[in-house]
Design brief:
heterodimer, A: 217 residues, mainly alpha, two-stranded antiparallel sheet, 62% helix, globular, B: 249 residues, alpha+beta, six-stranded antiparallel beta sheet, 38% helix
Chain lengths: 217, 249
């Protein structure tokens, strides 16, 4: 039944929880800290990584038998960079508005360790279909964490979600909503260290719910 | 035991072929898409200038340009004259909006004459405004913008953009609430001294009711980008002061 065998399905579902790239494999932390100050950026990044990792994993997997092992990292880097540049150029020519939103992320995607990590750990040793599933699973797992962190940082740091004020108006003299009761935004949430703390809290909750994940000393 | 793919000659051949294939593919793609990309950039410039002039489709909170298909006609309708400023004099140039501010800044550094484009236009209320481009450095990369002023150098509209500032922090210079703060701010004192506008932290005027303090409220967490905005306003708009003084004579 279904499109996917049990093993294949696990490739998608595992990274969502017990093998999450950010909280368990500790891949992709840099971008999780850099761009989660607002929810919209988190979503854009999650979708971009989904695209690049899904496609990149397939390309690397197809090339896995001809890539010389001595220069495999450089070959992987070229594949990611080429994919990202092609997407960037095509968007610039045909969807200029969208490309401006994404331009900040281009560099971040190429250097995202989650992409190189999955190429190296999975696509080099598995077939294209499995690699595609692995790419999708890992980027969704990555995206989920990004969106959770982005949600809390934007809500608590700026009092908005996707740019819409949800907690009222914080301008002195026009206070409304929660701000009328003396609530204030925590500007510290907007700075990168708080992203690390939020990720830390997620890791804590995840490991206390599933103690099998705790590493032994 | 060694695999075929481990040998040096294979590795070298692979690397050379890969570079050739990828390089020519990207070069082909880039050159075949260049006309489209350039056209998009040209329209964007027109949209930016119109935005500063107040010709835009803003809703209550977000900034929206006039749509790309009407940008050209709106540009020729609202921009009455494009000029290059030289001291107090002006030279008319119908393609002044295509002047590359970055290149002009570089040539000014090399001691050459910097061409200063200025766009004279009428906003929707028929008031004559002057739109000047500015360009500077943010935290990560270039930032730029267009400032619309009246003849007294009072800001009537501003548009800022950036290449790669941090989303949620420095990137917010292109948000409505930040750009709108500049409207009404004075750039020059009554005595005719150019002051600029500082993006100030710890501002005592968060609602920005005082328009002659030469300050707007900074964005939290975006100090360096904000300083970059202050700096580019100061250095680039200052060059237009002789022209604005000549207007009053």
């Amino acid at each position: 039944m279904g499109l996917l065998s049990k093993k294949d399905a696990a490739l998608i579902t595992d990274p969502l929880a017990d093998n999450n790239p950010i909280t368990i494999q500790v891949l992709g932390i840099c971008s999780a800290l850099a761009i989660t100050a607002e929810l919209k950026a988190s979503i854009v990044m999650a979708v971009s990584v989904l695209f690049v990792l899904g496609l990149g994993n397939v390309v690397i997997s197809l090339m896995r038998n001809i890539i010389p092992s001595k220069i495999r990292i450089i070959v992987q880097l070229i594949v990611v960079a080429t994919l990202v540049i092609i997407v960037d150029l095509v968007l610039k020519a045909f969807a200029y508005e969208l490309s401006k939103t994404l331009s900040v992320f281009v560099g971040l995607i190429i250097t995202n360790c989650i992409i190189m990590g999955r190429f190296e750990a999975f696509a080099l040793g598995n077939g294209p279909w499995k690699s595609f599933l692995d790419g999708v699973g890992n980027s969704v797992g990555y995206g989920v964490i990004l969106i959770i962190v982005g949600f809390f940082r934007e809500l608590l740091g700026a009092g908005t979600l996707l740019g819409y004020p949800v907690l009222g108006n914080p301008i002195p003299g026009e206070l409304s909503g929660l701000y009328a009761y003396g609530y204030e935004n925590n500007g510290f949430m907007l700075l990168s260290p708080m992203a690390l703390i939020v990720v830390g809290i997620i890791i804590w909750i995840q490991r206390s719910r599933n103690t099998a994940l705790i590493e032994e000393n | 035991m060694s695999k075929r793919t481990d040998s040096n000659s294979y590795t070298m051949t692979f690397a050379v072929i890969m570079v050739l294939v990828v390089g020519s593919m990207l070069a082909f793609l880039a050159s075949s898409l260049k006309p489209n990309i350039d056209e998009n950039k040209r329209i964007e410039k027109q949209q930016n200038i119109l935005y500063a002039l107040g010709v835009n489709e803003n809703d209550a909170t977000s900034a929206k340009f006039v749509s790309t298909d009407v940008a050209g006609t709106a540009f020729s309708k609202y921009i009455t004259k494009q000029i290059e400023v030289q001291g107090g004099n002006e030279i008319e140039n119908i393609d002044a909006y295509l002047i590359d501010v970055k290149k002009e800044q570089t040539s000014a550094k090399q001691g050459k004459q910097r061409r200063l484009p200025l766009f004279v236009g009428k906003n929707k209320d028929g008031v004559t405004l002057y739109v000047a481009p500015i360009r500077g450095k943010g935290l990560w990369d270039a930032i730029w913008g267009y400032v619309a002023m009246d003849a007294n150098m009072i800001v009537q509209g501003a548009y800022f953009d950036h290449k790669g500032e941090t989303p949620g922090l420095g990137a917010n210079i292109k948000q409505r609430y930040f750009m709108d703060d500049f409207i009404g701010e004075h750039l020059m004192s009554d005595a005719g001294v150019f002051k600029g506008i500082r993006v100030a932290k710890g501002n005592n005027d968060p609602k920005n009711e005082e328009k002659t303090d030469y300050e707007v409220d900074a964005i939290a967490g975006a100090t360096i980008t904000g300083d970059g905005v202050s700096a580019m306003i100061k250095s680039d708009l200052k060059l237009y002061v002789p022209y604005f003084k000549s207007l009053k004579k």
